[in-house]
């Protein structure tokens, strides 16, 4: 609370203040008083109170007296009693999942992993040019995680468009390795998306032992040939590419089944374009660029 007082008399005066702030339930949240001396005619003075929490819905009230004279003999020269502010409860964001990308590596990786949940805001989706955000954020995470020696396993993107002037995003990233420098990773992702000025907040980081997902035949049937070939070459890089090119789709799936029955190999770099919207498994009619190279041991 800030209150100004002015000496409107023709003589030098001491100015004093006293106020009481109550919350909507009538509880006292601040009681303040102070004096300032030597104010000539026309001089003013600002009284600045402390800080208090405004954490209840309803009307906060203020009772304030502006004083002259002295602390021993104060004279009330002006006063106010009434509402200080009115607060309302803001409902939590209504997030709707718009994307759930499951990366092929989630079907072969077993080991330490982390799930990071963070939120950030951008301009509303109704503004042209911002719909690309959900698509690009996945690709950017795959790249930034590689810099940390990690691989993206799963990524969920949820969106809340109820605010008028912005859109809330909640992103849940599951990646290999632990611990991970999530602040640097997220800053790198937002920089790629040209939203470096956006403030983000990490809500939770959970460490876990990740167990590979079961890869059933129906899921494998959704994989494009490029995805099947890349997974096979990742698991068995000695396989001649010409051999795979001559195989039918079902033969590729059968070979992948055989390889998946073996122990999962070390991580290899994968550059993948994710499907946006709803729940997607990479490889369904999408252009995929998968590298079969693996780090040297």
TrEMBL record:
Keywords: Membrane, Transmembrane, Transmembrane helix. The chain crosses the membrane at residues 180-202, 270-293. This is Uncharacterized protein.
